[in-house]
C-alpha cells in the first residue's frame, strides 16, 4: 500500500534551461522549420524561428555535415541584387529509422525516411505465439532483412510502439494483457539484436508525434489522438509536449465505462470502452451475423463496400460509440484537434460523419481521421524514433550504433 503524508512537500527548484537545453531547442526548431517549409532560404528560417541569421547558418552547416539537409540545386536571386539565396531542404535520400509495431495478431516492421514516409514495410504473423523473446527476435530479423534490401539507406535507430502500458523512460512494456506481456525490456532485448539505439513508446503517443511532425495536426497547439484497434487508448499533446504521466501511464482509457455497453470485459465489469470497441469484438459480431468468417476487420470493411447492410450497420454503430468516447474526452481536455485511428472512420465517409455527429456540430470539424490510413502501424513505430531525431538532431551519429 502506498504511504501517505500530510507533511508539506519540500519546495521545488524551478528548472533553468542550460546551454545544452538551448542548443537542443534551437537545433530542433531549425530542422523542423526546414522539414515544414523547405526548400527555404536560411534568412527565412531565421525569420520563422526568431533565431539570429548567424545562428541559423551555424546550425545548418552542422546539419549539412551530418547529411540531414542539403542545398537546393537552383539558387534564388534576392530582389535581383546581391548574392542569391540558396535554399536548403531536408535530405531524405539517405537516412531511415526502423519502425516496429507490436499488435496482437502480428508485428509490423518498416523503414521510414526523415519525412515520415514508409519506404518499405512487412507484417510478421505471430504464428508461433506471442512469447516476447520470439516476437522481438523476429522483429530484429525482419528489420535486418529490410535494411539488406535497401543497402543505400543508413539507419539512425529503431522506434517501437505498442498498446497497453508502455514506459518510455525504461523502454519497457509494463503490461499488455492481450499479448500476455509483463515487464518486457523491449529496449534491451531488441537493441542487443538489432545493434541500434531503440526507443519505445505507446502507439497513441507515438502517433500524436507523427501527426504533429508529418500529418494534419501540424501547427495545432493541442492534439488528442484516439487509437481504436484491438487495444483502445488515447494520447494528449499540448505546446509540443506529449503528456506521459508517472511511468507513462497517461492515456489508459480501456476501462472507461460506456453507458449502455453490453460486452463483458476481462476486468469483470460490463461495458468497458475497449471491450465494446475492440476489433476482436467487431469481428466476432460480424462472424455471428454471417458477414465474415475471419478475424480481420478489413474484411468487414470490404463486406460493407460490397453493399452488405449488416457490415455497414456494425461499422456505423462502432463509429457512433467512438464518437461518444471522443466527446467525453473533448469535454475533459478541450483540444484544438482530435485525430482518430479507427478502421471504419479511416475508410468510410459515412462512419466519419456518424462519429462527428456524436461529437456535436460545434466541434465536429476538429475531428480528423488519421493522416496515415494505409500505414498507421508502421508510422506509429517509426514516429517514436523520428521524434527523437527532431528533438535533438545534433546528437545523431549516422552510421554508428
UniProtKB/TrEMBL annotation:
Protein name per Swiss-Prot or TrEMBL: ROK family protein
Species assigned in the record: Streptomyces mirabilis
Chain spans, region Disordered: 1-24
Entry similarity comment: Belongs to the ROK (NagC/XylR) family.
InterPro entries documented for this protein: ATPase_NBD (IPR043129), ROK (IPR000600), WH-like_DNA-bd_sf (IPR036388), WH_DNA-bd_sf (IPR036390)
Amino acid at each position: 500500500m502506498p504511504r501517505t503524508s500530510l507533511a508539506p512537500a519540500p519546495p521545488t527548484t524551478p528548472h533553468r534551461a542550460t546551454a545544452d537545453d538551448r542548443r537542443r531547442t534551437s537545433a530542433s526548431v531549425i530542422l523542423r522549420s526546414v522539414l515544414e517549409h523547405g526548400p527555404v532560404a536560411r534568412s527565412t528560417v531565421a525569420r520563422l524561428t526568431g533565431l539570429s541569421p548567424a545562428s541559423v547558418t551555424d546550425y545548418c552547416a552542422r546539419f549539412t555535415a551530418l547529411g540531414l539537409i542539403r542545398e537546393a540545386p537552383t539558387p534564388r536571386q534576392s530582389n535581383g541584387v546581391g548574392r542569391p539565396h540558396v535554399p536548403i531542404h531536408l535530405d531524405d535520400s539517405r537516412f531511415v529509422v526502423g519502425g516496429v509495431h507490436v499488435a496482437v495478431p502480428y508485428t509490423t516492421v518498416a523503414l521510414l525516411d526523415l519525412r515520415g514516409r514508409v519506404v518499405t514495410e512487412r507484417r510478421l504473423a505471430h504464428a508461433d505465439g506471442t512469447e516476447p523473446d520470439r516476437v522481438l527476435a523476429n522483429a530484429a530479423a525482419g528489420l535486418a532483412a529490410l535494411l539488406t534490401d535497401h543497402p543505400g539507406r543508413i539507419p539512425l535507430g529503431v522506434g517501437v510502439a505498442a498498446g497497453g502500458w508502455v514506459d518510455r523512460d525504461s523502454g519497457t512494456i509494463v503490461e499488455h494483457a492481450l499479448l500476455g506481456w509483463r515487464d518486457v525490456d523491449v529496449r534491451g532485448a531488441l537493441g542487443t539484436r538489432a545493434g541500434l539505439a531503440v526507443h519505445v513508446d505507446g502507439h497513441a503517443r507515438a502517433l500524436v508525434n507523427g501527426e504533429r511532425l508529418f500529418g494534419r495536426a501540424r501547427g495545432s497547439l493541442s492534439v488528442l489522438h484516439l487509437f481504436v484497434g484491438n487495444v483502445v487508448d488515447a494520447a494528449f499533446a499540448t505546446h509540443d509536449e506529449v503528456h506521459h504521466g508517472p511511468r507513462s501511464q497517461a492515456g489508459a482509457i480501456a476501462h472507461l465505462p460506456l453507458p449502455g455497453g453490453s460486452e463483458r470485459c476481462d476486468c469483470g465489469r460490463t461495458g468497458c470502452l475497449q471491450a465494446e470497441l475492440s476489433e476482436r469484438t467487431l469481428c466476432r459480431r460480424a462472424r455471428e451475423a454471417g458477414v465474415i468468417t475471419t478475424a480481420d476487420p478489413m474484411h468487414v470493411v470490404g463486406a460493407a463496400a460490397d453493399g452488405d447492410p449488416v457490415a455497414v450497420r456494425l461499422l456505423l454503430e462502432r463509429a457512433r460509440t467512438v464518437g461518444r468516447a471522443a466527446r467525453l474526452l473533448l469535454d475533459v481536455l478541450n483540444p484544438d484537434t482530435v485525430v482518430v485511428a479507427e478502421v471504419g472512420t479511416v475508410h468510410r465517409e459515412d462512419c466519419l460523419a456518424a462519429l462527428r455527429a456524436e461529437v456535436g456540430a460545434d466541434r465536429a470539424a476538429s475531428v480528423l481521421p488519421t493522416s496515415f490510413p494505409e500505414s498507421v502501424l508502421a508510422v506509429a513505430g517509426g514516429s517514436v524514433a523520428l521524434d527523437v531525431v527532431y528533438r535533438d538532431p545534433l546528437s545523431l551519429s549516422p552510421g554508428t550504433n
